[in-house]
């Protein structure tokens, strides 16, 4: 089992082992905030099926409104929320995830509305960006402090981007493991894990005889490794998830040949109650990932249903899974097969509790509220010092003799 990193006191909110640590609220009792939340333009909020970020945004908007804040959500068309919903584009783009055409259009339209609100005297106090890269690159062009949740990994592809533009917003990581991979020169001061509304997921104590793998058909997510582990254990495996653009050849070569409709079933993309039942009835969720996954909603969803998670100890899996308590951390497919035999000893109620105490939306929304207030306070200090710098300049000008230019 991988040892857990020691708590870092510089983090405002952090996952220290199994419990979430919150610093005392900076400004508890302060009034309601006007928050603009920027979702990506690809998939509506809430997501009809696949869509981790959209599910996070959905829950967070609702919880912020419950906490008395005024929230405007910029999202893909088809979105529904308790927040005021703005949909700058004409259509959602689930098959064009990452397209700069749609992302820049979406962000620029949102920025115009944030600008307009300020000009009309109803400025947003803070903008919370979940949308990708464009908004962060342009975060210093908007008249409100920006909080940017880093949903993707820090890696060789994104390192220079964050080094150049990271200072333009307050960066929030979604796991301690993600903070550990922050590139040099980039500052991440807060960790707020992704939320789940635990009470909306069914707890099931008696399980059916199948293992579950659910996610994108990307090799890093390891559907082919789950197939191997299930085969070694002699158990039935259900695979759920879409084959997205670019994943066709992996699916065709590494996954599809093993799908026989009996021992290995692929049921495609699932959503709603069917997805919840799939999580709740499974003997265990297999998570044979080979990447530094920044969070991993499917693990938290399985645990909320009382379903143990057997994972490789990569990225946040080593934080979410508490070895021997709510699942097991294993090195490879062979160890995963052995762990499947032992998984019946894990208590479903403990699985659910391990999520409720760390990731329930009530906990994480309070965390974000605290981050917003810190971002606003820092922004005010910055503005005050800029104003102070301008005073001597003005004095100098007025002290110059007339016609000195
Ligand atoms: N998901 C879904 N239907 C599917 C496959 C996945 O609704 O067929 C959801 C899953 O429940 C989770 C999200 O998509 O909420 C995936 O998020 P995760 O953080 O696990 O993975 P990533 O964001 O890296 O794809």
Give a structural overview.
The chain is α/β, with parallel strands linked by helices. It folds into two domains: 193 residues, Rossmann fold; 161 residues, Glycogen Phosphorylase B (Rossmann fold, 3-Layer(aba) Sandwich), CATH 3.40.50.2000. The protein is built from 13 helices and 15 strands. Strands 5-4-3-6-7-8-9 form a seven-stranded parallel beta sheet, sandwiched between helices. A six-stranded parallel beta sheet has the order 12-11-10-13-14-15, sandwiched between helices. Helix 9 links the parallel strand 13 and strand 14. The radius of gyration is 23 Å and the shape is elongated. The N terminus is likely disordered. Bound molecules: uridine-5'-diphosphate. Uridine-5'-diphosphate binds next to helix 1 and helix 9.
Which helices and strands occur, and which strands form pairs?
Blueprint: E1 13-16, E2 19-22, E3 34-38, H1 52-66, E4 70-74, E5 84-86, H2 100-119, E6 126-129, H3 134-137, E7 146-149, H4 159-165, E8 170-173, H5 176-180, E9 188-191, E10 211-214, H6 223-233, E11 237-240, H7 248-255, E12 264-266, H8 272-281, E13 284-287, H9 297-304, E14 309-311, H10 317-320, E15 327-329, H11 333-342, H12 348-359, H13 361-399
Parallel strand pairs: 3-4, 3-6, 4-5, 6-7, 7-8, 8-9, 10-11, 10-13, 11-12, 13-14, 14-15
Antiparallel strand pairs: 1-2
Bound molecules: uridine-5'-diphosphate.
Give a nutshell description of this structure.
With 405 residues, this protein is of the alpha/beta class. It is built from 13 helices and 15 strands. 38% of the residues lie in helices and 14% in strands.
């Amino acid at each position: 089992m991988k040892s857990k990193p020691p708590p870092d006191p510089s983090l405002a909110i952090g996952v220290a082992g199994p419990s979430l640590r919150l610093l005392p609220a900076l400004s508890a009792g302060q009034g309601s905030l006007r928050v603009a939340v920027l979702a990506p333009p690809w998939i509506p909020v809430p997501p009809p099926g696949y869509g981790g970020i959209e599910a996070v945004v959905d829950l967070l908007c609702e919880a912020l409104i419950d906490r008395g804040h005024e929230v405007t959500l910029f999202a893909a068309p088809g979105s529904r929320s308790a927040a005021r919903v703005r949909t700058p584009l004409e259509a959602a783009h689930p098959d064009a995830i990452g397209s700069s055409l749609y992302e820049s259009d979406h962000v620029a339209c949102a920025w115009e509305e944030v600008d307009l609100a300020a000009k009309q005297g109803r400025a947003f106090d803070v903008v919370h960006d979940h949308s990708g890269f464009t908004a962060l690159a342009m975060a210093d062009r908007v008249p409100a402090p920006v909080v940017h949740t880093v949903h993707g990994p820090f890696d060789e592809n994104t390192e220079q981007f964050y080094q150049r533009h990271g200072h333009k917003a307050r960066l929030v990581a979604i796991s301690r493991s993600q903070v550990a991979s922050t590139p040099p020169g980039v500052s991440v001061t807060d960790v707020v894990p992704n939320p789940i509304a635990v009470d909306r997921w069914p707890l099931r104590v008696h399980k059916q005889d199948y293992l579950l793998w659910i996610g994108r058909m990307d090799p890093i997510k390891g559907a082919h490794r789950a197939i191997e582990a299930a085969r070694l254990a002699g158990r039935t495996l259900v695979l759920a998830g879409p084959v997205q653009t670019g994943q066709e050849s992996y699916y065709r070569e590494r996954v599809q040949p093993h799908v026989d409709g009996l021992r290995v079933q692929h049921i495609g993309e699932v959503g709603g109650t069917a997805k919840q039942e799939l999580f709740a009835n499974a003997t265990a969720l297999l998570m044979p990932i080979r990447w530094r996954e920044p969070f991993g909603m499917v693990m938290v969803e399985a645990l909320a249903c009382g379903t143990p998670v057997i994972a490789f100890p990569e990225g946040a899996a080593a934080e979410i899974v508490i070895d021997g308590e709510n699942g097991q951390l294993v090195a490879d497919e062979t160890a995963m097969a052995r762990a499947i035999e032992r998984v019946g000893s894990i208590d479903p109620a403990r699985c659910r509790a391990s999520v409720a105490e760390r990731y329930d939306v009530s906990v994480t929304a309070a965390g974000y509220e605290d981050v917003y207030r810190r971002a606003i306070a820092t922004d005010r200090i910055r503005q005050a010092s800029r104003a102070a710098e301008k005073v001597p300049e003005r004095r100098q000008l007025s002290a110059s003799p007339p016609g000195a230019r």
